[in-house]
Amino acid sequence: MQEFIFGPLSNDIQRQAHERTQRLGVRHDQPTPPPPDVTLPITVTVALPRAVEKVLCHLAQPDEAIIPLQWTRTEWDLANWQYRQVWEGVMPAFPHNTIVRYTIHAYPADGSAPIPANEGERYSYQVGQPQPPEWSRAAIIYQVFPDRFSPGEGRDWNPTQNLGDIYGGTLRGIIEKLDYIADLGCNCIWLNPFFPDTTHHGYHATDYFQVNPRLGTMADIRELVDGAHQRGMRVLLDFVANHWGSGHDTFQQAQTDPDSPYINWYHWHEWPHDYKTFFGVKDLPQVNVNDPGARDYLLDAARFWLTDVHFDGYRLDYACGPSHDFWVDFRATVKAANPDAWIFGEVIESPMLLLSYGGRLDGCLDFLLLQALRDTFAFQSMSLAQFDGFLRQHEAFFPDSYSRPSFLDNHDMNRFLWLARGDTRKLKLAALCQFTLSGAPIVYYGTETGLSQNEDLLKPDGRVIMEECRLPMVWGEAQDADLLAYYRWLIHFRRRHPALWQGVRQTVYLDEGVYAYTRSDEQETILVTLNRSEAAREVTIAGISLTLEPWTGDVRVMR
């Protein structure tokens, strides 16, 4: 059984090629927004086959200005076997909430045309050091896939021929199950897309202001959000800014009329049939979010669902597609509409790039922790010592102000229980670890009931069939009652003990089979012990004697 994680850096060859490319040409990282009235250092690296005479920062907003950079040193780039220059300068200080935009160009000594940094990328940030909304720190998220959750109104699932068919889940079905989600203990729902679309998953949307008629009506989505709020739950909408379905009216017009006002909403290689897409899928044209009209459409949609329907934030699909400049405006729009909204992105990238979304988004999904949890508890390819080392560095790398929602599986990868070959002990142990770390935990629908899959996503011929992990939710006697009770206990335990998301974590025991750590705040200390072995273990930790059965854990309040 092989692991599959969707994204452009899923294997070592892709990562090495990406790292080499990032060292070539004129490069400048997206800046971390500074506090108000504080200057910002600017660093640019230049690796070109010609001499560079000067490097200039062209400030465009809030005022136009030219900021010269100075050469400071020359480095040797081992990966590309060549020299690389480093140029540095200083951005002036600006007041709180000022949006700053600029570009950078290197000027060759031979008088040839200036070379823009990062292929002409526009850099931007909003001054300030924002925090995620306070409620997000205590969030426990339940991910709902509308077509696969519940048909509602006493109906059965549709008869289907394959996993890509419409199974018949509806918004009414979700409304009827809000008490189930609330009783489970989750206080936040992540709703996968429900826009008009012919697919089962909703990511080929053709209108960002309407509800897919087969799922329900605008009245239904309002009732769903209101019903969640009445039960003390927030609701997040899955929002895709990078692409949408080719059936979108603006694309249809742009593809048939070269004079259409929407022609620049898309990236044309050769009009009308060759255009930039999402990973080569012709039905998913990539949106030019830097076009003012396209950007306004997306921002208007984001504002609408927050203010008119009262969603509480967004999970942002493929957030590494749109420019950072777009996310600066997106954040400003969202926070103006609802200052308490939570926005986090799906970015399957390096920790350095994840950090670059700080001040633009509230954070990103924790794919790095996901892989470590799966390697440690499902595959057992990561030792407990390696896992401990990863956690120590991972937690130290990201600031407390950066949201890192955690998960064991989702709709784009093999379910954890499938990787664990149906061993619910391994799922329980991984969940115990997940729920005792700081990031807001996410439960993918059905994981808590023992829902798995029939086949692996990754096929022998190299194809990946995402639908394998999207089987319909099981209800009633089909649920694993023991696993469900465990999840319900675990979720409510986390909610009762804030130290688990706001306390300091400290490793207190580690050997080849047992791993233990404490989570402590001013009110309490909680001891978490994990036995990842096939043998029963008797250990004494912090004066507490524990007997742990194979593949079980223990969590207890010490003070």
**Rg on CA atoms, Å:** 25 Å
State the share of residues found in helices, binned by percent: 25-40%
Query: DSSP helix count?
Result: 16
Low-pLDDT stretches are none
Briefly note the structural class of the backbone: alpha+beta
Shape: globular
The share of residues in extended strands comes to 15-25%
Overall pLDDT confidence: 96
**For the report, how would you describe the main beta sheet?**
8 strands, antiparallel
What is the count of β-strands? 25
Question: Could you characterize the architecture of this molecule?
Answer:
By secondary structure, the protein is of the alpha+beta class. Helix content is 27%, strand content 25%. The strands form 6 sheets. Strands 1, 2, 3, 4, 5, 6, 7 and 8 form an 8-stranded antiparallel β-sheet that branches. A 7-stranded parallel β-sheet has the order 18-17-16-11-10-9-19.
Give the arrangement of secondary structure elements:
Layout: H1 12-21, E1 25-27, E2 40-47, E3 52-61, E4 65-77, E5 82-91, E6 99-108, E7 115-116, E8 123-126, H2 134-137, E9 141-144, H3 146-149, H4 171-176, H5 178-184, E10 188-191, H6 218-230, E11 234-240, H7 249-256, E12 268-270, E13 274-275, E14 277-278, E15 281-285, H8 292-307, E16 313-317, H9 324-337, E17 342-345, H10 351-355, E18 363-364, H11 367-379, H12 384-397, H13 416-419, H14 424-435, E19 442-444, H15 481-496, H16 499-502, E20 504-510, E21 514-520, E22 525-531, E23 537-541, E24 544-548, E25 552-557
Parallel strand pairs: 9-10, 9-19, 10-11, 11-16, 16-17, 17-18
Antiparallel strand pairs: 1-2, 2-5, 3-4, 3-6, 4-5, 6-7, 6-8, 12-13, 14-15, 20-21, 21-22, 22-25, 23-24
